[in-house]
Amino acid sequence: MAVVVMAILAVSAITGCSSGSSFTGSWGDDAPGEPSLRIESDGAFSGTDGCNPLKGTGTISGDTFTFGPFASTLKACEGVTPWLNLASTAKVDGDTLVVYRTGGDEIGTLEKR
């Protein structure tokens, strides 16, 4: 019986690690002009680059979140650098979401809320 319970716990732990749950939740700052992002367990995401809202669906595979096509407006906002709308992939590093553009260059970070 103990072996069965241990096996179930081991499978649950492995499944939990591969589910991408570290990506889910809110990232960034809700303050005006600041980027923020919310990622759901199914890969749906929404947020703002600090000026323009964005929304789409991505995929979670291992330690990488890949942004799929997303909709965003392109209005200019004084004092805001809209880097989040260039996102291609992201990885979690502790309580930080590190965001990369196509080609692998880091373009910004968002802290877990």
UniProtKB/TrEMBL annotation:
Pfam families: META. Residues 20-42 are annotated as: Disordered. It comes from the Bacteria. Residues 32-103 form the DUF306 domain. InterPro entries: DUF306_Meta_HslJ, HslJ-like_sf. This is DUF306 domain-containing protein.
